[in-house]
Amino acid sequence: MDFLTCYTNKSPLLMEGALGERLKREYNLSFDADVAMASLIYTNEGRQALTYLWNEYIAIAEKHNLPFIATTPTRRANKERVNQSKYSEDIISENVSFLRSIKASSSTTMFTGGLMGCKGDAYQAKDMLSIEKAKKFHSWQANLFHESKVDFLFAAIMPALSEAIGMAKALEETHLPYIISFMILENGCLIDGTSIHDAIMLIDKSTQQKPVCYMANCVHPKILYSALEKEFNQTPLVKERFGGIQANTSPLSPEELDNSADLKCSDSIELANEIIKLNEFINLNIVGGCCGTDNTHIEQIAKRISNKQMIFEKKSNK
What's the CA gap between 246 and 261, in Å, rounded? Predict the structure, then answer.
């Protein structure tokens, strides 16, 4: 079964939890100034830590009989940053190969994604690209992922509509399944002020091969709930096309989280219950963790989404 078929079947998929914070906190690893976590595969310590954390999450998926998805730690490894680093474009294919080796050692149904992100600051929507510039800029990385045979592409924490459209145009040209995941505020909008509904509508209209779905990541489920609760987001389009969350454990704003020196964490059971509450508004098909999460949070999430009846109860009763 390929990724698109699995998603279309509406089986809940478990996504990985946090990597970056855990790599720093639990392994005392530092990241490259240019390509960030993408360089970790070139050290024994980095490879061992990534292997352990991914296998920890995979074991949870296997325990609860859930398909598992993970993405390469390459959000910052775009063309500009790679060119100014000491690394070559091979950093993309080598990250894919490493993640695929993790997949090969597991019997779990697992899909490997190529992780991408905006060119500028995702937490403040600075230096965002126009549609045409974004398409040109992101095509380089997207094409390298296509050549490396990832299962899907994942554009994370996209804060502005123009670059999200350009990103989608670059991703669709690979003909790979892809997901656009937004940075969403409690007011129901992306950081640039575009509503969730309008962002989905305009990206769908701008592409021939539409995203598989839309998500939010680096956001607490309470914030996403408030955002989806806004009347202008209470539309059939949002209900149909919004598919999941990689959840933060803290309800702080993006600016507060980005500048915080301390880990912001919350109870794993509370977080999992807040995620399930989102089913009032969206088809909760992909669920994972972002800042502050660890194996305990992913375990609680997996316990809940493994019961498909719990996930789709409201939907089936309508």
Answer: 21
Q: Distance between CA atoms of 116 and 119, rounded to whole angstroms?
A: 9
Classify domain 3-317 at the CATH superfamily level: Homocysteine-binding-like domain (3.20.20.330)
Amino acid at 18: A
Ligand-binding annotation for 218, yes or no, is yes
Element (H, E) at 297: helix 295-305
What values do phi and psi take at 296, rounded to 5? Answer: -70, -40
Helix/strand/coil percent split, the chain, to 5: 50, 15, 35
With beta carbons less than 8 A apart as the criterion, state whether 182 and 199 touch.
yes
The pTM (predicted TM-score) of the whole model is 0.93
Is 118 labeled as ligand-binding? Answer: no
| Residue 161, token pair as written in the block | 């509509």
User: Rounded to the nearest 5°, which phi and psi values hold at 11?
Assistant: -80, 135
**CA R_g for the chain:** 18
Task: Write down the domain spans for the chain.
Answer: 3-317
pLDDT tens digits along 104-150: 999 999 999 999 999 999 998 888 999 999 999 999 999 999 999 99
Element (H, E) at 157: strand 152-158
Nearest Cα to Cα of residue 75 among 58, 57, 95, 50: 95
pLDDT, tens only, 251-301:
765 555 544 555 456 689 999 999 999 988 998 999 999 999 999 999 999
